[in-house]
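Lines hold sequence, tokenised fold; shown next:
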Amino acid sequence: MIVLIANDSKSNKPSGLLRAKGEVLVTRVTKTASSKIANPIWFCLFAIIVCVNHFFSLVPWAKIRGTFNSSDIGLLIVVLLLLFLVGSRKVKVRLNNGISYLLLLYLCMVMGGVANVSFNYGQSIFDGLVAIRHQLYYLSFFVFLMIFDDERCIKQFLNFVMFVGAILCMLGLINYFGTTIYHHMWAEGHGVRSGVTRGFFAGMGLITFSLFWVVAQWLVTRKFSASREFIGLLLIIAHIMRQTRSTLVAVFIAVLSLLIHQRKVKTVISGAVLIVLLVGVVDVVSEKNFILDPFTNAYEEMSEGKGTWAARMQQLETDIAIFLKNPVVGGGTYAIRLNLEGKTSMQLRKLTELHENADLGYTHWLKAYGIVGAIWLIGLYITMGGYIKHIMLGSIDEGLRPMALMSSGYMLFVMISFITDPHFIWPDRILLICLALATMVRVRQLAAKK
């Protein structure tokens, strides 16, 4: 039997059990928080997070183009862990859900893209498989689904992710105000926006995910927690300093939706007043309003066709042109391998335009998978909507409600920000999507048992 046992610090009783048929793999761990994470399976999950985020840019060798990519190590751990879990426990009931079938169908679409690129652009099947290998991170959904055996287990892991997010925020602040600790092209700042150097925070996707977990807990518990409020403040500061406009807008809309759903009218009004006051104070004491200016600049870029907007418009034209050539199944362009061998700079630039030259989400998706991909994405959103409606409008246990709010809020954020951020393609974001979807499915399954 596979067992993840984490003792309760007060009662010394085992919690977070993962039950299955077979032998006991992991013995009881001690009371300390660190010993809970010392469990081999939890170590595997942590290793996956670290590897897919390229060791959070703390080492120079985590991603060397054409030589080494730590995401490959993370993927190997995902596959081995999945094989181990499938081979050692009964999974029929847990995997029997709409999301599971959709993700398996998506992997078939990815393989079809490999054949599509081989036919359209003369690329070898091997190069196509190399290019799409990180899409196999969708298998992590099944890993989470099997490991999340009960409410306590899910909560422990989400708290752990939140703790990692807080550490990443502190590391980012050290990198920004102190010594440069990151090995990344943006380590010393990602350009200047509104007169302020944009900070670089490794694992930004994980930081956003953690923010939704903090918000969800606050909405349900209604109790003051110094550690949680401090972590929430760190997560908000990281988003403000990063100044990614699409992320800020999507987070705002998603969190506002959660507040309205929970009937937090006073909180919404108080927050609006606080934002107005903050914008006014910054406008008075500073020449540049680092809160408001990024959005006014975005409007100017859109109207004048400059900045990042210009690059996206050029990429949009390419995306539409490829889609019109292959409207049904798309061009399979995510399967294009951008290797340097045997290619001139002109050929490489053309392949980059075909693959992904500017941050766009929905149009890249349509370019790659066509109408079939659009139907799949709509099907995923409808299925998610069904889960959200069931767990949000139904009477579920208060212990499960924070997880329901978190998964719903985060996936709403993904749907909005996918306009510019390819969440469904980047491996680190795929892992977080799978974590949110697995949480959503398990919450509904656990709620049905009560």
In short: DSSP finds 18 helices and six strands in the chain. Residues 72 and 134 are 7 Å apart (CA to CA). The chain has one domain: 39-323+325-449.
